[in-house]
Structure formats: C-alpha cells, structure tokens
Amino acid sequence: MDPLTENLLWEDKEIRFDTPNVQKHLRKGEKVLDTIYHIEDTKGNPSDTGRLLATNLRLVWHSLSHKKYNLSIGYGRFVNTNTRSVVSKAGAPTQALYILATGSNTRFEFLFTDISGDTARRDAPIFQSIFEIYQLYQRTYLYRDLKLRGAIILSGQLIIMPDELVYNNINGVWNLSSDQGNLGSFVLTNIRLVWFADANHTFNISLPYLQISNIRIRESKYGPALVIQTAETGGGYVLGFRIDPVERLNEIYKELISLHAIYTENPNFGVRYDSMDAKKRLEKMKEAEEFKTEEFQEIDERQEREVNTKLNTYLAEGMAVAGTEAPVREPVYCKELGFAMERIRDGYKLQDLWDVLPRVEGQ
C-alpha cells in the first residue's frame, strides 16, 4: 500500500491564510455545520464583508468582495475564544468573536465582527454555534487522533463510540514494541484499530484509520509481522504486530486494507451537530429564563398590598408630635409571647403587628 500523504488530515491542526477557494475545497467527511453572514475579519481584512463557516474540523472566514482573502483556523489550534461587545464603524454597539490561536510557534489573535447593522443581532447569540461545535470537537478526539494508554477498555471490552461498529475481535496478537513482546488483542471497527494487552488493559493503542499512512507485511526478527506506519499528524510511529499462523496474518492484513479504504472514502470525524436542533434548544432556554408579563405584574402588585400597612399605621400613630411627648402605655403580660409588653392600642390585634407580610391562603 502506497503512503497516503495526500490524505493527511491538516484542516483541524493548521492555520492557513488565503488558500484559493478554501470555502469550496472541503475534504471528504468535512461538513459545513453552520454559516454566519455579514462578518468582518476586523484585524486582517477590515471593511471587507465576509462570512464564517463552522465545519466539523475548523472555522473558515472568506471575503465576499475579494475572493483571494480567506482564513482557515483548525479547532486543534484554538487556545481561547469568547465574545466581546464592540463599537462598529457606524458608532453602534455590536458583537465580535475573539479567538486566540497558536501555530508554528506563533500566536495569532482573530476578531470577527458582526457588521450587519441588524439591531436584532446585537443581543442574539449569533456565535453560539461555534462554541458548541468546538466543544463537540474537543470531546471526540478518539475519532481523529492516535491515543496511547487511554481509558478505552472496560471489563475486557472496547468502549464503543457513537456511530462505531465492531467488525472483528482478534485474540493472540503480539505487540512487538518491546524486546519480549506483549500478548494482546485487536478490535477492528469502522473507525479505528485498537490493540490492548491481555495482562494490562491500560496498555493499549487506539489508532483511527485516518492516521494510518502505510500498512504492510514485513519480515522481522520474530518472523512475518504486520507493520503499520502512522501519519506525521499521528506521531509518525512504526507499529509492529505478530499474528500466527501466517495465513491468519494475511487475512487480517487484507481486512485492514479494506476497512481503511472504506473509511477513507467516507471518514467520520465524530462531530455531530444539527443547527436546527441547536436553535430550538436556544429558544427553549430563552423561554425558560424569561418572566411572563402577567406573573411579574402579579408579584409586583402583591408586594405593594402585602406590606403590613396596619403595622406602619400603628407605628405612625405612636410617634410623638413635634413639641410633645409620646403617650406612655402601661405594660401587660402577653400569653402568646410569654413576656410583658406595652399594651396595644384600641382597634389593633397582636396578629396585625406580628405579621410583616400577610398569611397566604391555604398556609
């Protein structure tokens, strides 16, 4: 099998500028999950109207007025991202998406500003989809990246990911990475090749077909071995496995070649996002957070009438008029409170003065 260097996954791991027709040249399996219109690349291309495309691998901005101006920012290069309130050139408040990213030992800062002038978008979460897609990307790295010694085996069984199907479980596979070798098992799925040691399940490898650049059978000091070379983006490892007998080795080799070819035609990067479902969730959240007008008015009216006006009146009547002394009333013993208190004036009851807020019916 020839090296598959032309299929190396770079989209989520690189930052590229002014790639011809970047918005149209998506790799197999890459999908535009959301599009945000009327966006300016404020730091790089001010005054240019463009649009943001959020795919399952990266964020793409491209100018509508200058076709050669564009950006491709892989999610794997994101360091920090947030939204900011800024003032547009027209002097009106608007939203902007700030992204701090790193690439080739260089730090990049991007600011994408809404220049639509639409007042309805000022307080709307127009960049929310980007945050949600990026979070999904972070949680699905096993679909795309090689993982050594991961928590992927539970009770001797591979923990299956969404959309993953197990095609074959193969025992008696020796990992030749050490001098003595380690006996373990293969699990072949539609997304990855997994090997784990029988004696220690935490000693394992999860290798997506996406990160395989070469598969072949070669002679080793242990005899014929299955040799798998990972892509540069997968660490550039050379992994050797011995499977007896040779006939069984050849069968597994052919199966791996087939699974790799099928996956390459329709890769699954793990990010599952539906913009319509996301909008419905957002609308429900808004409804849950908003006060209903009638409820708010009822609470407001109740507060005005629930304040104990009798207590206020009682206190006001007992205040001394300017230039006079307040009348003194003799103390009496109160059974309800258990101590002596000033005698209550005529026309009032203890309950009138004790309840700061009136009792609610039924309580």
TrEMBL record:
Primary residence: membrane
Family matches, as Pfam families: BBL5
Source domain of life: Eukaryota
One GO process term, biological-process aspect: cilium assembly
GO CC term, one of those recorded: ciliary basal body
Keyword set, alphabetical order: Cell membrane, Cell projection, Cilium, Cytoplasm, Cytoskeleton, Membrane
Molecular function via GO: phosphatidylinositol-3-phosphate binding
PANTHER family recorded: BARDET-BIEDL SYNDROME 5 PROTEIN, BARDET-BIEDL SYNDROME PROTEIN 5
Protein name as annotated: Bardet-Biedl syndrome 5 protein homolog
Taxonomic source organism: Bactrocera dorsalis
Organism lineage string: Eukaryota, Metazoa, Ecdysozoa, Arthropoda, Hexapoda
